[in-house]
């Protein structure tokens, strides 16, 4: 197993390098880069997101850009010297290959640079937004498993009954409802839209959170994330439930189950003493990947609807504003996380069922 893990870890390097090369190459052909964004601001055309207004970088800030633009009020364009200064500030006075190699060298030293349009480092920016995304991803995954596993087992045991039929109908409806539409419905019903004002409309905590006691802080936290978690869990629990049911049904049909029954074991003993471990292999071992998928996918819309400032919104705003240090820094960090999670999923398989040997399968 050690040799297998080592090979997987070594594969992370070329895989991550390929991801960075492809995305860096694609960005070179996308119009409206950071220089164009800065020029648009200097000409008073504003910004796509008001949240990006700030003081800028260490050497040249947006205040200097605004001052420069004031000197050219009424001009049809900005002077070439100003544009050249912007290109130098953003590093676009160098050829693409040199910029790419320099970026990788900095990443190897864990230097992810600073945001072009915010006076904050990429790592600090990610850490600032991380609590929101972790809250949504972690609790949504836990709740999905707590609901899906018992429900999936129950559906497998009562396969073909009325219980299985009507719960399957509910699952299909839940899976078909878009998360953002369900989120809006929750807001309208329970966040003061048109009916009840039970849950808060925005934020992860209340304004007076710091002054609350420990128990009150915990209650306030869950009070704020209740609706976002329900909205982000709706489709995940449907998939896991069907996966659990089908996994149990596949195991029940195998010969060792018939042998266990022939020995006189009760149905409960067969189900939880023999079937459960094998059937849960694919479900439990997939926990890391399920968490990552909920962590990344769908968070943008949920965060926007519930006014949560997390990684999904950060990535979208960075892409629109062409904030390349944030785009490539987060791409590198989360790409590395996803690849490592893939290795953790394999380790989970071995932990759940030690009989699995990936080295023999590769051989």
Explain the layout of strands and helices:
Layout: H1 2-27, H2 34-42, H3 62-70, H4 80-90, H5 96-108, H6 122-157, H7 162-176, H8 179-190, H9 214-252, H10 255-262, H11 267-285, H12 287-296, H13 299-305, H14 311-321, H15 324-352, H16 358-362
Q: Rg, please?
A: 26 Å
List the domain count as a whole number: 2
Shape: globular
Average per-residue pLDDT, rounded, comes to 76
- Largest sheet, described in full? none
Count of extended strands: 0
Helix/sheet category: mainly alpha
Any overview of this molecule?
This protein is an all-alpha fold and 363 residues long. The protein folds into two domains: 31-93, no CATH class; 123-362, Orthogonal Bundle (MetI-like fold), CATH 1.10.3720. The protein contains 16 helices and no strands. It has helices at residues 2-27, 34-42, 62-70, 80-90, 96-108, 122-157, 162-176, 179-190, 214-252, 255-262, 267-285, 287-296, 299-305, 311-321, 324-352, 358-362.
What features would you highlight for this structure?
363 residues, mainly alpha, MetI-like fold, 2 domains, 16 helices, 71% helix, globular, cell inner membrane, transmembrane helix
């Amino acid at each position: 197993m050690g040799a297998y893990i080592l090979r997987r870890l070594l594969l992370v390097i070329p895989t991550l390098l390929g991801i960075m090369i492809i995305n860096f190459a694609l960005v070179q052909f996308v119009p409206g880069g950071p220089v164009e964004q800065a020029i648009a601001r200097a000409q008073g055309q504003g910004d796509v997101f008001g949240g990006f207004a700030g003081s800028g970088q260490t050497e040249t800030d947006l205040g200097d850009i605004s001052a420069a633009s004031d000197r050219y009020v009424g001009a049809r364009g900005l002077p070439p010297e100003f544009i050249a200064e912007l290109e130098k500030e953003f590093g676009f006075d160098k050829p693409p290959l040199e910029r790419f190699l320099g970026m990788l060298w900095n990443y190897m030293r864990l230097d992810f640079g600073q945001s072009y349009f915010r006076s904050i480092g990429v790592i600090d920016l990610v850490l600032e937004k991380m609590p929101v995304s972790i809250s949504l991803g972690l609790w949504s995954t836990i709740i999905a498993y707590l609901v899906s596993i018992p429900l999936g087992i129950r559906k497998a045991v009562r396969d073909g009954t009325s219980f299985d039929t009507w719960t399957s109908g509910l699952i299909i409806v839940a899976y078909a409802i878009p998360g953002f539409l369900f989120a809006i419905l929750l807001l309208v019903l329970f966040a003061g839209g048109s009916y009840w004002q039970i849950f808060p409309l925005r934020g992860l905590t209340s304004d007076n959170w710091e002054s609350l006691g420990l128990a009150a802080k915990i209650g306030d936290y869950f009070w704020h994330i209740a609706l976002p978690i329900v909205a982000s869990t709706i489709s995940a629990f449907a998939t896991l439930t069907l996966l659990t049911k089908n996994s149990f049904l596949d195991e029940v049909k195998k010969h060792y189950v018939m042998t266990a029954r022939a020995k006189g074991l009760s149905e409960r003993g067969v189900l939880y003493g023999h079937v459960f471990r094998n059937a849960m292999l694919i479900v439990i071992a997939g926990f890391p990947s399920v968490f990552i998928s909920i962590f990344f996918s769908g968070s943008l819309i949920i965060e926007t609807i519930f006014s949560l400032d997390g990684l999904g919104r950060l990535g979208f705003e960075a892409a629109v504003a062409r904030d390349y240090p944030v785009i490539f820094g987060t791409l590198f960090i989360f790409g590395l996380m996803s690849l490592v999670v893939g290795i953790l999923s394999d380790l989970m398989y071995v932990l759940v069922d030690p009989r699995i040997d990936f080295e023999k399968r590769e051989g």
